[in-house]
C-alpha cells in the first residue's frame, strides 16, 4: 500500500512539473526527453542544496525547533527563501538553455518582452509548494520530538521503578535478611552496621527517585554505602575503587544511575574469592564518570541487555546532547556517563496543590485549544496564498480563489470565537459572567434567608 501511494505521489509530481514547464515557464517544443533533462537539473539542484543544508545544520535545526514551537515558522521562512533563490537560478538556467538551443534565440531574450515574469511565476509556485512541505515536515519533527520526550519520561519512570524493583525484589531482600540473620549470630556489631547501611540505601532511593539530577558527591556517597552493603554479602568476592573527592565543581549526575550500574555488575557476573569482581569508579578529564568492572559473565545472562543501561541512556538523552558510552572488551566492561554542570530544561513538571488540580487541567485544555487554533490559522493562510497565486497564474480575470477563502474564513472566525470564548452579540466570557451572576444571586439570596 505504501509503495502504491509513493508511486502515485511521484506520478503527480511529474505531471505537475511537466505542466508547469509547459504552461508557466513557457518552455516551447518540450518533449519527453527534454522534460527528463530539465527535470533532472531541477531535482539535482534542489535536492543537492537541501541535502547539504540537512547534513550541516540538521542538529542546530533540531535544537532551534525544540526551543519554541514558534520557531517552526521562522525555519520555514528561512529554508523557503534559500530554495526560492535556488529555484530562481535553475528556472533562469532552463529558460536560457531552452531559448538558445531549442528556440534558436539569444539568451538575453529571457529578460525581454516580459518573459522573465514566467520565471518568477514558476519560482513562486514551487516556493509555495516547498514552504507547505517544509512547514509540515518541521511540525512533524517537533511532534516526533515531543513524542520521543514523552517516551523518555516513561523510560525515566520505568528506570526509577526498575531501580526500586531491583532493591525490593524478594530475592534481593531475602538474601539481605539472610545475611543480616547470619551476622546477628556471628557479629552483632557488624549486623548493626549492615542494617544501618541497608536503611540508608532505601532512604536515599526514596529521597532521590523523583529528581532529575543530584550532586555527584551525594551519588558517590550513596554508592559507597551500597558497596558496603554488597561487600557484607559477598565479602572478598568484590573489590572496589572509588574517588575520594569530586574534582569538578557543581558536578551532577542522574540519580540512582550508579546503583543500577552496580546492580547490573552483580547480576551479570560471577564472583568468587579466587576470581573477584574488580569495580573501578573514577572521573575522566573529558567530563565523564567511568564505571568499569572485570568480566566473568554468567552463561544464562550472556546475551541479555540490561534494561538499566537503556533507561540511563534515555534519561541522559533528555537532559544533554552528550551520549552515554558503553564499551566491552574481553576483560572489561566499561560505562561512561556524562557529568553535567548545568541543567538544560527541556520540559517542565508542574507540581500544584491537590485543590488546584482541576484549575491546572482546565488551563492545559485551554492552552491546547489555542495551539490548535493557531495551527488552523497557519494552514488557512498558507493554503489560500497558494490558491491565490494559482488563480493569478492560470486565470486572473476570474477570482475563483476568493470562494474557498471566504467560506473557510467563516469557519476560521467561528473557531476563533469558540477558542477565545467570544460571542458576536454577547461579548467576551458572557457564559462565565452569567454563571457568576446566578451564583452571586443564589448566595445573596441564601444569606438574606439566614438573616
Sheet with most strands: 5 strands, mixed
Counting helices, strands and paired strands, the structural category is: alpha+beta
* Global geometry: elongated
Rounded mean pLDDT score:
77
GO molecular function, one term: phosphorelay sensor kinase activity
Protein name: Histidine kinase
Pfam family, one: His_kinase
InterPro entries: 2TM_dom (IPR025698), Bact_2-comp_sensor_kinase (IPR050640), HATPase_C_sf (IPR036890), Sig_transdc_His_kin_internal (IPR010559)
Write the layout of secondary structure elements.
Layout: H1 2-24, H2 32-67, H3 71-102, H4 116-168, H5 170-186, H6 188-208, E1 214-215, H7 216-234, E2 238-241, E3 252-253, H8 257-268, E4 277-283, E5 288-294, H9 307-319, E6 325-328, E7 332-338, H10 357-394, H11 402-419, E8 422-423, E9 427-428, H12 430-450
Parallel strand pairs: 2-4
Antiparallel strand pairs: 1-3, 4-5, 5-7, 6-7, 8-9
Helix pairs in contact: 2-3, 3-4, 4-9, 4-10, 5-6, 6-7, 7-8, 10-11
Provide a concise account of the structure shown.
This protein has 12 helices and 9 strands.
Can you walk through the features of this model?
The protein is an alpha+beta fold. It is 67% helix and 8% strand. Strands 2-4-5-7-6 form a 5-stranded mixed β-sheet, with helices on one face. Strands 1-3 form a two-stranded antiparallel ribbon. Strands 8-9 form a two-stranded antiparallel sheet. Strand 8 (422-423) and strand 9 form a beta hairpin. The longest helix is centred in the N-terminal third of the chain and has 53 residues, at 116-168. 18% of the residues are buried.
Amino acid at each position: 500500500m505504501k509503495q502504491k501511494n509513493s508511486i502515485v505521489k511521484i506520478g503527480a509530481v511529474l505531471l505537475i512539473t511537466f505542466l508547469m514547464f509547459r504552461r508557466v515557464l513557457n518552455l516551447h517544443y518540450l518533449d519527453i526527453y527534454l522534460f527528463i533533462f530539465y527535470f533532472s537539473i531541477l531535482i539535482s539542484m534542489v535536492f543537492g542544496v537541501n541535502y547539504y543544508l540537512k547534513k550541516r545544520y540538521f542538529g542546530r535545526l533540531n535544537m532551534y525547533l525544540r526551543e519554541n514551537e514558534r520557531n517552526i515558522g521562522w525555519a520555514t521562512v528561512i529554508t523557503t527563501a534559500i530554495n526560492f533563490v535556488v529555484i530562481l537560478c535553475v528556472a533562469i538556467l532552463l529558460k536560457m538553455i531552452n531559448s538558445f538551443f531549442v528556440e534558436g534565440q539569444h539568451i538575453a531574450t529571457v529578460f525581454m518582452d516580459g518573459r522573465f515574469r514566467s520565471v518568477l511565476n514558476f519560482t513562486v509556485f514551487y516556493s509555495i509548494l516547498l514552504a507547505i512541505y517544509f512547514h509540515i515536515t518541521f511540525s512533524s519533527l517537533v511532534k516526533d520530538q515531543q513524542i520521543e520526550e514523552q517516551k523518555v519520561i516513561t523510560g525515566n519512570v520505568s528506570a526509577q521503578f526498575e531501580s526500586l524493583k531491583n532493591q525490593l525484589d524478594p530475592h534481593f531482600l531475602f538474601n539481605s535478611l539472610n545475611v543480616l540473620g547470619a551476622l546477628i549470630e556471628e557479629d552483632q556489631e557488624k549486623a548493626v552496621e549492615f542494617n544501618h547501611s541497608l536503611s540508608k540505601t532505601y532512604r536515599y532511593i526514596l529521597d532521590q527517585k523523583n529528581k532529575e539530577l543530584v550532586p555527584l558527591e551525594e551519588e558517590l556517597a550513596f554508592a559507597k554505602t551500597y558497596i558496603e552493603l554488597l561487600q557484607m554479602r559477598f565479602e572478598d568476592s568484590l573489590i572496589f575503587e572509588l574517588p575520594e573527592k569530586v574534582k569538578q565543581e557543581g558536578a551532577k549526575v542522574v540519580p540512582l544511575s550508579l546503583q543500577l550500574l552496580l546492580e547490573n555488575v552483580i547480576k551479570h557476573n560471577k564472583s568468587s574469592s579466587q576470581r573477584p569482581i574488580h569495580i573501578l569508579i573514577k572521573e575522566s578529564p573529558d567530563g565523564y564518570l567511568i564505571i568499569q568492572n572485570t568480566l566473568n559473565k554468567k552463561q544464562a545472562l550472556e546475551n541479555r541487555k540490561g534494561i538499566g543501561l537503556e533507561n540511563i541512556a534515555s534519561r541522559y538523552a533528555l537532559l544533554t546532547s552528550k551520549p552515554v558510552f558503553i564499551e566491552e572488551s574481553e576483560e572489561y566492561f566499561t560505562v561512561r556517563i556524562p557529568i553535567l554542570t548545568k541543567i538544560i530544561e527541556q520540559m517542565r513538571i508542574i507540581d500544584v496543590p491537590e485543590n488546584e488540580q482541576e484549575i491546572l487541567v482546565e488551563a492545559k485544555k485551554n492552552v491546547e485549544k489555542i495551539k490548535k487554533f493557531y495551527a488552523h490559522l497557519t494552514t488557512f493562510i498558507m493554503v489560500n496564498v497558494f490558491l491565490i497565486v494559482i488563480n493569478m497564474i492560470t486565470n486572473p480575470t476570474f477570482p475563483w480563489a476568493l470562494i474557498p477563502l471566504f467560506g473557510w474564513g467563516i469557519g476560521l472566525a467561528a473557531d476563533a470565537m469558540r477558542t477565545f470564548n467570544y460571542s458576536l452579540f454577547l461579548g467576551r466570557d458572557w457564559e462565565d459572567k452569567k454563571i457568576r451572576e446566578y451564583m452571586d444571586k443564589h448566595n445573596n439570596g441564601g444569606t438574606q434567608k439566614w438573616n
